[in-house]
Amino acid sequence: MSMHPIIVNLTSGTHKICTCGESMTAPICDDSEGPPCRKAPSITLEAAKTVPICACGRTQTAPICDGSHGYEKGR
Ligand code: FES
Questions:
Q1: Does pTM surpass 0.85?
Q2: Do the Cβ atoms of 47 and 25 come closer than 8 Å?
Q3: Nearest one of 28, 31, 8, 5 to 18, comparing CA atoms
């Protein structure tokens, strides 16, 4: 099964990224585990940007996809 990043258009500012899978607004954290969620990594953007969020868990630059998902073919 191949995994790819989730492409999201984010506004400027700080966004928390869900890593627990419970968010109803995934991949953005909605504090489902009880506000405020402390496990969610955050990213801060100075301007609106389209961002690839890692969905495979292999990225070294979490929560942003670094292309590591492409290596699963050889497993
Ligand atoms: S989705 Fe690309 S590294 Fe995880």
A1: no
A2: no
A3: 28
Q: How many CA atoms lie within 13 A of 15 on its CB side?
A: 22
Q: How far apart are CA 32 and CA 19, in angstroms?
A: 11
| Ligand 1 binding pocket, CB closer than 6 Å | 3-5, 54-56, 58-59, 65-69
Nearest atom, ligand 1, residue 59 CA: 3
Q: Where are the domains positioned within the chain?
A: 6-74
Select the more confidently predicted residue: 1 or 51.
Answer: 51
Q: Are 57 and 18 in contact (CB under 8 A)?
A: no
